[in-house]
Design goal:
With 99 residues, the protein is mainly α. It has 7 helices and no strands.
């Protein structure tokens, strides 16, 4: 999956070569708040994006948020529609560009 490789490269760049494992290590709370406001994200959409940026699958996101897989897929579809995106790579690039 190309978006995972892209995100791993970003993690290394953001952490100056040290591997980063959590979204909280990638961006400050202020950066997240700014991005959420700039993109008009709901709290749930922000949660899902953070998990996507960690590289979590839909199934892992469902487990982490204690929601069904179908609900995660609905959230993802609505996020893509709202932000005029096609996939997770575009979502990742949009988030990075919005910082």
């Amino acid at each position: 999956m190309a978006w995972v490789c892209c995100l791993q490269n970003v993690r290394c760049i953001k952490s100056k070569g040290e591997q980063v494992m959590r979204h909280s290590d990638l961006f400050s709370d202020g950066e997240w708040a700014c991005t959420e406001q700039k993109l008009g994200l709901s709290p749930r959409q922000a949660q899902i994006i953070r998990l996507v940026l960690q590289g979590d699958s839909d199934k892992q996101i469902a487990q982490a948020l204690n929601i069904s897989l179908a609900t995660v897929r609905t959230h993802m579809r609505r996020l893509f529609d709202k932000l005029h995106l096609n996939d997770r790579l575009e979502l990742t690039l949009l988030i990075l560009a919005s910082l």
